[in-house]
Amino acid sequence: MTVQSMRTTTPAALPGTIAGFTCERFAAVIAERGWLVIDGFVDADLVERMRADLASAYAVCRSLQIANGIALDTEGTLHHLIGLGASFLEFIDGLEPVRPHFERHFRGRFILNSFGGNILGSGGSYANAVHRDIRTSSGNLPLLLNTLVMLDDFTPANGATLMMTGSHRDWPEQPDDAAFHARAEPALGRAGSMLVFDSHLWHAAGVNRSDRPRRSVTPMYCRPFIKPQFDYPRALGYDRMSTLSPLQQQVLGYHARIPATLAEWYRPASTRLYQSGQG
Ligand SMILES: O=C(O)CCC(=O)C(=O)O
Question: What domains can be seen in the chain, in order of their start residue?
Fold first, then answer.
């Protein structure tokens, strides 16, 4: 595995190192540039299964978008893929190599905030607008972290995500298009690469000028005390917890649930719905 735009001589075999990134290096690059690409994070077999699950999940999302009258701007977009394909749960279980990096970023544990997808065609979608995914700036306290897993090669021709490097540090207000494009760099990578970026960073999907869709999934992570966009434990079912790995339980938020009855609230520490250690 190699890393776009920053190389290090640290051997990948060191514990806590992913694709040549030590936790320290990862933190320094996110702090300075705001984004990085981890090449080859997902292997080809899982990428293939995620592509297949994305296609069937899109049929589910699209029929609801149309039925609920929001078809216009949402073409090619998918939301909350957990539960819509086994490969997405398997992806969550594969986060172990970046867990130390993300925990260092958050200064503690993290959970899934949302898990969307994008099948970017030439018609584009709302993701082409310059935006960032955190509405309230949290300053130096990291609350949200964006990722994007490339399910096709990301190239300048097929609309690689445009990243306004460093804008998480020095651009609190939305830039106009000229300012954005003056500094934007495409996040290029092979299928299976994972783009990671500070959620304060301004970005946009590029324009897909190729004749094929450019597919991705976009998991975002947050501190466990932040309200996620979707209640994944409730959606999957509380009784599914025992079938999930410890990492899946943590990331899906099974240890950061909200009691809804006093019987759920009054419990010994070991079975509390919001566990200690979640921040
Ligand atoms: O699809 C893309 O290139 C952009 C995705 C995006 O805007 C996001 O993950 O917030």
Answer: 34-271 (2.60.120.620)
